[in-house]
């Protein structure tokens, strides 16, 4: 896919499709090598084949599983000798409904998959490489972590926590490691399909830029946050929303 070689290596969780794959694609295009994770092996194999087997590798497993986290970090180090960038992208939202009725077991699971897993990956990447060599982390949050999004309460709470996790890591891991988050609005992926499929015209009406997001919109932003061009930016959350938040005014 790319003949460039940056000499840098990224671990991107949840990257066999959707936003994670879009991020991996952007990083490979600028010359990085990438390690993808996801639960299912077949789509990971296909993603690696598309990116180029000389540029990408994968480890299958569940993001919240500490043993999987350790295996993924060990694999990327043994394969490429370093792990400069960690992108905590794997996330879930298994339930829609009023927060008053939210199943607490499900809410715990959402928190575990979306937030605790990101902390686990950050700790392991730090210990294996970033503490001594520096690097960057990008956490994939959501506009749902910044503003109320009815009927996805546990998800929004977890994404708000992801933003605070970003602040904590950015402070404690400076100056060697820069840590930022991104907060996308609706991006056209399998995960978000229920929010726009069959009614895309209507769904995109609220977006001043006139369309929903696509994974390429996110890949470019993460490429920036993991590059020297953002060398004095840490602890920030970049909203990527096609202007959606511009609607929050009074008129
Ligand atoms: N799409 C949006 O509108 C939107 C907006 C804001 C934020 N986000 C966030 O962006 C991230 C990616 O979402 P997406 O829309 O790209 O979703 P997607 O298209 O469904 O892709 C999710 C990816 O993560 C993997 N995955 C799912 N659960 C996992 C788990 N427990 N452990 C490891 N890997 C897992 C999936 O592969 P397997 O199924 O094989 O595991 C797949 O590769 C999520 O954190 C989501 O909250 C999405």
TrEMBL record:
<dbReference type="InterPro" id="IPR036291">
    <property type="entry name" value="NAD(P)-bd_dom_sf"/>
</dbReference>
<keyword id="KW-0560">Oxidoreductase</keyword>
<comment type="similarity">
    <text>Belongs to the short-chain dehydrogenases/reductases (SDR) family.</text>
</comment>
<protein>
    <submittedName>
        <fullName>SDR family oxidoreductase</fullName>
    </submittedName>
</protein>
<dbReference type="Pfam" id="PF13561">
    <property type="entry name" value="adh_short_C2"/>
</dbReference>
<dbReference type="InterPro" id="IPR002347">
    <property type="entry name" value="SDR_fam"/>
</dbReference>
<dbReference type="GO" id="GO:0016491">
    <property type="term" value="F:oxidoreductase activity"/>
</dbReference>
<dbReference type="InterPro" id="IPR020904">
    <property type="entry name" value="Sc_DH/Rdtase_CS"/>
</dbReference>
